[in-house]
Amino acid sequence: MKMGFEESQTPYSSGSQSARVWTERWVKDWVYCPNCGSPHISQFPANSPVADFFCPSCSEEYELKSQKTAFGSKVVDGAFRTITERLAANNNPNLLLLNYDLAQLAVVNALIVPKHFFVQEIIEKRKPLAATARRAGWVGCNILLKEIPPSGKIFFVQNGVPVPKEKVLAQWQRTLFLREKATEARGWLVEVMKCVESMDRREFNLDDIYAFDQHLSRLYPGNQNVRPKIRQQLQYLRDRGYLDFVGRGQYRLRSSS
Ligand SMILES: [Zn+2]
Question: Which residues contact 122 (CB under 8 A, 6 or more apart)?
Fold first, then answer.
């Protein structure tokens, strides 16, 4: 994997247009499909409303967002209604985020947020465009990256260094079980995974995770049985190989490598 862009093919003079061409070319040259390992993904025809890339082997779809600064707590996405509908229909694309260094003309970070981490909780509705805007009343949305646990951010390249392919594929496989759940049920699972991963250690006990019950009650005010609900998620996560029960109320996260 080479980090630098192919400078020779720059048909545009505007910086952002060139960057789009460079980053798309880089994805075509170097990004493999994390789902099936196919060495390349293909580009949809320009302005395709569906996504930007797809895997010719397993049909997995990818939407590319690239920018010159590192991605912060949120990223601007398209129409709120479109993404909500696609979420409900379970056909939203995976999100491929790429940030590059304009001086070096090279990729700094490339990561994928798998589509199964997309739940309603991470979609933030933006204010409608002002009446004076060309698309007055149009409502966009933000993807709240900070609400996605680390296991839902799969780096191909981190700080200019490529991550070994087998590690990327293993990390992808590790959370694929989330696709078995409808988006609503998935919200709870992802929230519990986020609590677990925010502790940043491999072993924890039930009390550690119960410490998040206030937080979860606020998120799901309709649920009166937060602790049983937490235990139910932990059981599910054990059954799917995300963590192990190692003793009475003791848990251990499985590593992805
Ligand atoms: Zn594939």
Answer: 143, 144, 145, 147, 148
Residue 158 has φ and ψ, to the nearest 5°, of -130, 125
| pLDDT tens track for 67-82 | 999 999 999 998 999 9
Residues with CB under 5 A from ligand 1 (ion): 33, 35-36, 38, 55, 57-58, 60
Amino acid making up residue 174: R
The pLDDT tens digits of the residues spanning 119-142 come to: 988 999 999 999 999 999 999 999
pLDDT band at 163 (very low <50, low <70, confident <90, very high): very high
Q: How far is the CA of 213 from the centre of ligand 1 (A)?
A: 38
Dist CA 61 CA 71 (whole Å): 21
Pairing of strands 94-101, 61-67: parallel
The model's pTM is 0.89
Return d(Cα 209, Cα 203) in angstroms, integer: 11
CA angle 137, 113, 77 (to 5 degrees): 15
CA of 54 to the centre of ligand 1 (A): 8
CA separation for the pair 218, 106 (Å, rounded): 43
Q: Which of 170, 195, 183 shows the shortest CA–CA distance to 256?
A: 170
> Count H helices, E strands: the chain?
7, 13
CA of 172 to the centre of ligand 1 (A): 12
Q: How many A from CA of 240 to the centre of ligand 1?
A: 22
Residue 2's Cβ-side half-sphere holds a number of Cα atoms within 13 Å equal to 11
